[in-house]
């Protein structure tokens, strides 16, 4: 049975990878047939110019995937095709992250996925 959580419980991830590259990671929740969101497999990646302050998160969360490609902070997305085994990074924004940053980010997101208490907004 898959893990089901409420759509509004997944919160953005603020992290730093590589040589002090601040990132904002937004889990892309999808609604299932019963109206709840399932644990996401796709994470949108943005440069975080605000050092984790949370400014403009709501604006970025509400954007459709067609709109985010025009956002200068958008760096693409990571998809977990088989969690723990197969991942892909799609650099479809105006800039991209390095291979080393992708590997580091996958480790960070895996930790997030494996630690449900990090998902809940207080």
- The average pLDDT score comes to 75
What Rg do the Cα atoms give? 14 Å
Listing every helix as H and every strand as E from the N terminus to the C terminus, the arrangement reads EEEEEEHHEEH
Molecular shape: globular
- Strand content is 25-35%
Number of helical stretches of at least 4 residues: 3
Largest sheet: 5 strands, antiparallel
Number of strands: 8
Can you characterise this structure?
By secondary structure, the protein is an alpha+beta fold. The chain has one domain. The chain is built from 3 helices and 8 strands, in the order E-E-E-E-E-E-H-H-E-E-H. It has helices at residues 57-61, 65-68, 99-114, and strands spanning 4-5, 13-17, 21-27, 30-31, 37-38, 42-47, 74-82, 86-90. The strands form 2 sheets. Strands 2-3-6-7-8 form a 5-stranded antiparallel β-sheet, with helices on one face. Strands 1-5-4 form a 3-stranded antiparallel β-sheet, with no helix packed on it. Strand 4 and strand 5 form a beta hairpin. The longest helix has 16 residues, at 99-114. It is globular. The two termini are 26 Å apart.
Ordered list of secondary-structure elements with their pairings:
Blueprint: E1 4-5, E2 13-17, E3 21-27, E4 30-31, E5 37-38, E6 42-47, H1 57-61, H2 65-68, E7 74-82, E8 86-90, H3 99-114
Antiparallel strand pairs: 1-5, 2-3, 3-6, 4-5, 6-7, 7-8
Index terms:
alpha+beta, 20% helix, five-stranded antiparallel beta sheet, 122 residues, disordered N terminus
Quick structural gist:
This protein is an alpha+beta fold. Helices cover 20% and strands 31% of the residues. The protein has helices at 57-61, 65-68, 99-114, and strands spanning 4-5, 13-17, 21-27, 30-31, 37-38, 42-47, 74-82, 86-90.
């Amino acid at each position: 049975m898959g893990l089901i959580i409420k759509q509004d419980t997944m919160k953005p991830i603020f992290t730093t990878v590589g040589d002090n590259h601040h990132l904002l990671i937004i889990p892309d929740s999808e609604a299932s047939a019963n109206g709840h969101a399932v644990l996401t497999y796709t994470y949108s990646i943005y440069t975080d110019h605000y050092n984790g302050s949370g400014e403009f998160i709501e604006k970025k969360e509400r954007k459709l995937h067609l709109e985010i490609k025009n956002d200068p902070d958008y760096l693409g997305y990571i998809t977990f095709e088989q969690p723990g085994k197969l991942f892909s990074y799609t650099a479809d924004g105006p800039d991209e992250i390095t291979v080393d940053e992708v590997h580091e980010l996958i480790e960070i997101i895996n930790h997030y996925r494996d630690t449900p208490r990090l998902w809940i907004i207080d």
